[in-house]
Amino acid sequence: MRPIRAASLGTATALVALLACASATSAVGSDTDSDRDKGKHQVLTLTGKLTQQTNFPVNPGGPAAQGDRTVVRSDLYDQDGKKVGETGGFCTLTRAAVPGDSGGAEECIVTYTLPGGQLTVQGMYFGILNPGPRPSFDNAITGGTGKYDRARGSVHADTIAPGERRFTIDLYL
Hints:
The protein is an alpha+beta fold. It folds into two domains: 1-30; 33-172, Allene oxide cyclase-like (AOC barrel-like). Helices cover 19% and strands 49% of the residues. The chain is built from two helices and eight strands; from the N terminus they run ααββββββββ. The chain has an eight-stranded antiparallel barrel with strand order 1-2-3-4-5-6-7-8.
């Protein structure tokens, strides 16, 4: 028999999850292309150059394992080569090498600091354990501050050289 406190906590958790799903469903249902067109749309193309990276492995000296964490920082440059900001974030390995798929997967949360505010970005990054150049990935813009306070959209990243990526930020304000 479960203690009353545990049962209440379970019920409260289920209720919060149910309400969150209902709110998310309502929000998704009301976001149409015409709603999106009302906002300001812009595409930013920036180059990120890795300046710091620290790995925190679960099994130091062993193979990649679920829970391994990487913390990164990059400087951001516009198409003229002028530094315009930086990124900072972390990725956690959610899938280590498994039979039939040695590529692995990470969940990443990154903040892009730009003139006038910040963008927060989150998403999965697949194939990170494969040898060779890092694969491309797409992440969702989950919010922002300052002039980006109502930001939504996505970020597409392509590796263009070791430690260097091109970020295409498809931004709706």
